[in-house]
Specification:
alpha/beta; DHBP synthase; ten-stranded mixed sheet; 7 helices; 10 strands; globular
Length: about 200
């Protein structure tokens, strides 16, 4: 079953409920707007849904998903190591268009983001569990700014499509920053600059 909803200010809670119901079924992935670009999301630990998103995007399976969370405790509960530098950056810029890559206790990395977008934040809070997210475009192509364009390119139809009139033309993917203790590295330039980040840490 495929469902298509149009997000308006009055029906946010209702659409969150419908998305939660859909996410209960393993393998389900959703097409959603965010404050940066349209995204494909599923429950963080849903391996089947992740595989379907890879197929939809023709993406190599070694490319990581973002962990979408509503607070950093969610990252810690999956072994993410949150340094004081990371805490400062979270306080300064989250929720917002920044993805923070941190080491985990088992020697991996997690890139997490707290979206500045009511619908996604409510969905994460109601799900009480992180979501896995990636931009809704074919791998290697620029992000789509309207849903028709994005959906027409995908190789699999998402189980739920949540639409919003359109994302502003000026929207750009989040800044991606890697933190190891107090060491910083910008992996992708975005709305938040390295200078702003350095200022926030020095406070």
């Amino acid at each position: 079953m495929h469902h298509h909803y149009l997000l308006k200010s009055g029906n946010l809670q209702n659409i969150v409920k419908k998305c939660l119901l859909a996410l209960e079924k393993p393998g389900t992935f959703l097409f959603v707007p965010t404050e940066t670009v349209y995204g494909l999301i599923c429950s963080w630990d849903d391996v089947l849904a992740r595989e379907r998103i890879y197929k939809a995007k023709k993406r190599e399976e070694n490319k990581p998903f973002q962990m979408l969370v509503s607070n950093i405790d969610m990252v810690k509960s999956f072994g993410g190591i949150i340094s004081s530098t990371t805490e400062k950056i979270v306080q300064a810029f989250c929720p917002g268009p920044i993805t923070i890559v941190v080491p985990t206790k088992d020697g991996q990395n997690i890139g997490f983001r707290i979206p500045k977008y009511d619908f996604i934040l409510k969905l994460i809070e109601s799900h009480t569990f992180p979501l896995a997210g990636t931009s809704a475009n074919l791998s290697g192509e620029p992000p789509a700014l309207n849903s028709q364009q994005a959906l027409s390119e995908l190789k699999l139809i998402p189980d739920v499509v949540v639409d919003f009139e359109s994302i502003p033309e000026s929207s750009i993917p989040s800044t991606v920053i890697k933190i190891n203790g107090s060491k910083l590295e910008i992996l992708r330039e975005g709305p938040i600059s390295l200078i702003e980040i350095q200022k926030a840490i020095q406070r």
